Amino acid sequence: MPPRIPTPSRFGVTNLCLRPAPSNAQLPITSSANFVTMAQRRKYKDPYALAQAKQRKDANLSRRAELQEQRKAALGDPVRGITTPFLESFDHVGGSDILNDATITAEGVAIKSTDDVLLNHFLRPSELEASIKHSQALTEPIVSKIRDFADPVIEAEEKRKHEEGHAKAVAAMARIVSLANASQKDKTRANVVRCIEKFGRHNTEQTLKPRAPPNPAMLGDKPLPEKTPRAGPDTGSSEVQIAILTAKIRVLANQQETKGGNKDKVNKRNLRLLVHKRQKLLRYLRKKERGGERWQHLVETLGLSEGTWVGEISL
Length: 315
Description:
Blueprint: H1 38-45, H2 47-75, H3 85-88, E1 101-104, E2 109-112, H4 125-139, H5 152-177, H6 184-199, H7 201-204, H8 216-219, H9 238-256, H10 265-289, H11 293-302
Antiparallel strand pairs: 1-2
Helix pairs in contact: 6-9, 9-10
């Protein structure tokens, strides 16, 4: 048998591994994001450095507010512009947010309103009145043609109940279609309809002069391009889009001035986007119309000052 070699004890044994050590040993990786220098630590602990930072921030904010006030005084408010009667009518939808009343007339129960008042759900007072008369005729109790078996007392009672129910239904319909009970989305939709009727070229072409035609010498022998005939009301011209944006901007600006509205960052961003989009359209229309009647009518009606399209707008 071969001789047994005694196993050395666990402690006190030298390393008998003959493998060479790696030449380029990798060091442990330290994340630079968590690395904070001593100077940065002292900065957050030093009250003098904190006071200096706060002083610089307050100076920057006050300077920015001063520049905004100077711009507003020179060019006007870039968001609201100048207050005009048409601009104020956006708040009450041109007087259409009054609760409609149901009145009893000689012809029956009717909703007291005029045809120029806007209603909710895309209705007009004339359409609503025709529908109410039609429903009254459909629900009216049938009078028996055979009068031998008819009871006048029962017929009178049924007629009275029908009139009372019809009056309640008309009053309910008046409250449903009134913009006084509508949401802000429905009121904005009604203001969009008013802007289309006010600034749409299907109406303004009859009263306002178009811009001057180009010089024939600049065109040469080329004829003027024929315009595509308009189908329906004008909803895509620059003046209509500017008026619609102004109505939406006024809603968001009023919301920002309410209690806690300055914390609404989403609507503040939406307001900034709408203001900048209106600025681009105003610059384009001003260049195209060259100070024509359409431009003057738009600026005077909406109260748009130079601050709405001149320079950089920061909110």
